[in-house]
Every structure is written in structure tokens, then in C-alpha cells.
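Researcher: Please generate the 3D structure of the following complex. Treat every line as part of one assembly.
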Amino acid sequence: MSKLSNSTLLKIFTKLLILLALAKAISLALWWYLPSDGVELNIKENYQPKYQRVDFKNILENKVIAVVETKVQTTDTSSSISITNMILKGLYGNATQGYAIVSLKSNSRKTTIIALGERFSGYTLKEILIDSAIFTKGSKEYILSLVKPKKGKSSISKVTRVAQSSDAKSVARSDIMYYSKHPREIWKDISITEVKEYGKIKGFKVIKIRENSKFASLGLKRGDVIIRANNVDLKSYRDALNIYKNISKIETMQIVVMRNNQEVELVYEIN
Amino acid sequence: MVKKLSIFLVYALFFMAAFIYFTPKISIYYFLEKELQKQGVVISAEEAVDSGFSLQLSHANISYKGVDSAKVANLEVNIFELYNSVNVQDILLSSAAESFVPLRVNTIDVSYSVLNPLHVTGSAQGEFGSLEMEYTILENLVQITLEPSKLMLKNYKSTLGNLVKSEDGGYSYVKTF
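Model: Done. Output below.
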């Protein structure tokens, strides 16, 4: 036994074992302090354009006050807000798609645009008819109608916008598809650079635009800072690229640019 | 004396090998991921495997500032302390970069050795051609020398316009951080 403990081999083996234990102990200490999970990109994708264009002219021509007719029953005991307190101010679309502009009688100036399937005060917009909209709540259906107001009275106030606006311009989808397939062609006609404020992107500035190009015909000018597109603030490259990636699904495009310290809205209908 | 020094070196090498083997490489990788995230770089959807003396990553999506930038088929990290390297294979850049560079990069190799302690060197090959890279640690200086491919010369003249053309037909880029 004594011979064994004094053998060189055992000494070396013991030293190696100690080194091994030391290495393992240090790695365990490292493991204790290091994170146990990594980073994943977690950004909600939104392929639906956040902007829907509503023809306000139609609304203004049909100044209305709502009258409620019930198809099944006129009252709803489960809601604190009765549908009789709702005003239908405008309609846009047809039976399968579209939007309704509604407000409450208690605050008729505050309007809400709801799409088919969306809810307002507990009522779900089910269908849009020529001069009325069908809402559902529970198993009951309600019809909210547009009725012309008495002369001189209108529940609709003038539409105001913070930004200047121009009429919608028409853009050929074929042009968009061409540019989406040939992105290099974009940069022959236009140059854009990020604009930062306090280290954060606040928009993208047009630093060059070729005369007589498609982009120039869209109303963009050198020096414009594009700050918003389809109601999405362009605060990152991802925001801009999301619009670009989903351009084929968009039917209406709204761009807000800063021009001479004023917001200017440019609207395009893609067809 | 020489014998003692040799024995010490053998023990030191054994300890380093054991330490490299036991090091929680995936945890270190997670730590580096969090550091990269501060710079806006996120590596996601990857499979990380600790294979003893190296770390293998596969099918990684790399994004910069929230924008999908590249997909990497394989990435191998070797940390031998005296010699460290990162080898990346089959990189497909995002289509958003199509207007600036060809999208497919075959390999990227970056290495650091104690024999050249003040520099990190690297090389890459792909549809763009080939390049050599050197990062000087003390000066925070990056020097890249590019040998462009025919495709690059034909279709990406505007990108090459940002580089300095050398007499031998190559292009160089120098940047200090």
C-alpha cells in the first residue's frame, strides 16, 4: 500500500484529478452566473395595413342622424349602452367588406370607424346595407339606419386634419410589382437616408430624386422626410421594410412627409 | 529546471483542455447573444450544440435592428484560448440587400491567435468574390481588401464605388471605430 501511494503514477494521476476538479468547479461557477436562455426575435408581424381610406365626401353628402330599428328586439338588457344611444354616421363598403362610422349620442363628435366583424360598445358589425348596418349582440340582430337630418341640423362636424392633404393619386400595381422584383431600380431613381433625433430614427429623408421618375410623379420632393406610412410611424428600418414587404397586399397607401416644417399627407390608390 | 517547466506546461495544457471541455459554451453563447442584442443584432431560431471542444450553431436567422438580415446554415465556434476561430458556412443575405450585394456568401472565417495578439483576421468567399479582413485591436481599425467577382463588377458598381480601387484591380475599405 505504501509503495502504491508513493508511486509516481499515482501522484500524477492525483494531480490531474485535482486539475480536472478545478476546471469543472470553475466551469460550474461560470455556468451559475451566465444566462440560461438566449435571445429570440419577438416582433409581432402585422400584415394588415393599418390605414383604411374612407370616402368622407359620401359621409358629408349624407348628413344623417341615426334611427334605430330592431329586427328582433329593440332593447338589450345585458348592455349598459343601448343601441338606441348609437349614431350611424357613415358607411363604406358592401355586405362582405367595409366599414361603418359610429358614435354615441352622448359624444357625437367622437367617431369610431369599425370594420365588419369588429365590436363597438358590445355590438358587432355584421353586415353593411345601402343605408343601414346590421349589428349583433348575443343572438340578437339590430339594424342601425342612416336617416337624413332635419334641414339646418347635422350631427356631423367638419372633418379636420392636422396635416395638409392632397387628392389620392393612382399608382399602377404593375409598377409596384416591377420595383419589388427589381429593388436595385428603386435606388437609381431615389436616394433615402435615415434621420435621427436623440439617437433614434424619426424618419427617412429623400436626399435625391430623379426628375421625371415614377417617384417624382408621386409628389415626393428632395428634402422630404417620410415619417409615417399607412399610419405606422417609421422609427426603424423594420417598419419601413414591413410596408415594402407587404406592398402587394396593400390597396391604399398613405405617406406623411415633413416638408418645410409641415406635415404633408400623400395618398395613393393602388390599382 | 527544463524538466520542471515541461511538466508545468503539460499540466497547464491539461487544465486548459479540461476547462475548455467543461466550459458551458451554450451559456457563454447566450451571454454573447445578449451583448449583441445591445448592438441591435439578434440571432434567433438557431440550434446550439455543445460538441466538447467547439460550439455548433445551425439554421440561425440573424436580424439587425429588427430587420431580417441573413440566414446562416452552419456556424462553428472554436475557443482553444491560444487559438480561437469562428467558421460560418452558407449564408443567405436578406433580399432587402439585393440592391447592394449578391445575396449568397459561401464561407466566412474569423480567427484570433496568440501568435498575432493585436490582430483579428478573417476571410470570406461568396458570389461577391473574396475578401480578406484584418481588425487591429489597439487602433480599432478595420481593413478589408476585396477581390470582386464578375457578377459584382457587372451589377454592383454603385457598391464598389464606395470602396477605394487599388492598382492591382482589387478594392479596399478602411474604417476606424
